[in-house]
Amino acid sequence: MSTQTHSTFTQQDCQLQLQSSLEPLLDAGFISHDCYAKVYAELDQFYALLRAEDTDDDEYWKEFQRQFDFVDESFGPVKVPMNAANLCPEPRHLLIAASNLRFELNRNVAQQTRMRGGLRARQFEQTRKALADSLGIKDAKNLAIVRNASEANNAINGGYRNWNKLGNDSAIDNIVLWDQNHPTNLAAWQLRGGRVVKEPTQASGGDGHVFNIHMVSLPDKIAPDQVAEHFIKHINARTRFVSFSETSNGNGMRIPEVAIQRIWNHVQNNPDLRNCHIHIDGTMAFGARQLDFSKPFCHSFVSSCHKWFLGPKETGILYVDRAKAKNFEPNIFAYDYKIDILKWNELPHTAERFELLGQRDDVNIITLYWTELMWKNIGYPRAYRRVTQLADALMTGLKKEKWNVTTPDNPAMSLGVVWVDVPPGRQIKKLSDELYEKGIAASFSPSTDRHSETKVRLCPHIYNTMDDIRAAINIMTKWRGPVA
After folding, report:
1. Which helix (H) or strand (E) holds 214?
2. pLDDT (tens digit, 9 = 90+) per residue, 379-403?
3. How far apart are CA 10 and CA 13, in angstroms?
4. Which residues contact 399 (CB under 8 A, 6 or more apart)?
5. Where do the H-state alpha helices sit in 379-480?
6. DSSP 415
7. Full-model pTM
8. Is there a contact between 342 and 356 (Cβ–Cβ < 8 Å)?
């Protein structure tokens, strides 16, 4: 699922790819020479800063942090984001470049520019191919650019129509879900007609529901090589889906690669499971580490791009195996990014069938291409080392101060999402409010008491520094007070 290799991405490589995104716009008269020069200079300067020697030195990351506007004190108190599982800021250079482009492209919104063969349609394909190449997806048409992971998850759970429900216990289909999935990949399945059964052998057909849901609960303390069995024991010839988050935003636990591969091999090597579909919500992984689809490990995969990937808002990806795509009807039927209205029964047999979303934000799509260029210059191995370094420092520091960290500390079982128990007490102010007031924007799990929380979640990313980690630990510990 991942690779630690990192091919050298040179200045010339970067400049050629940057030019390929801008020169067609200039040649077609969509942008002026002045806009071209401004955008090129803005991004070339940014990328050059990122191509420093492959180092984990904190000075490199401090300089990277300075490329974000949240550090600018002239607009008020600094609020350092530490909630990458929810939303990430965009680097200033990408925002400035996108704004320049948006003003220029707004001068010509003619339909001809966005139809099949039009320049903006070609740039959509350019972005799709860049993302697919980075992910090791050989056929770019198996990757759809959608608006977020929620939409992509619902394309899967809302689009499947081939349920076999004959009204008797032995014939009803089932799916296998992890109980730590995001609601768009958990409760959404119940919305589609699923009902949770308590035991793998329990049948409950006849009450009008469409399929059974077998829910997987994993122990807090579990070895990586024990995870797969908790899923496999639920899988049988009636299983249509096995779906889980690569890393849960709910408890920070990660399904280790060894388990993902074993589940995949179990399904692929069993002829009775040829109708079983493995769907992974990889929102916490995309941008946090390298992903490699050149060796298959699932039938579909989703992620938002405005989280760990640091991309523009309302962009996301949906990978679907070509052999499986035709099993799903799109939830939204509109014209595609080429402004083609397709016949309802002649939709693409690829992931493109999930892009029938109507009007798109052309600038966001181009910015997505520039964001991928950013990652090429940083290098995913370096980013992954930094994410794990920050999370490890946070968990180690909190434990030293006697906080109960509930996220697994095994690096194979976690990735950047850190959950901490909030001790019960009579604090006047919530911990998350205290963190925010003191300059750290985290997330929290609320309780019924308006003055308290049950847990706090911190998700440091590569724009955070070790100073930020120490600040968060100090704020939390001072708020809590001494422990007996």
Report:
1. strand 211-216
2. 999 999 999 999 999 999 999 999 9
3. 5
4. 405
5. 380-400, 431-437, 466-480
6. -
7. 0.94
8. yes
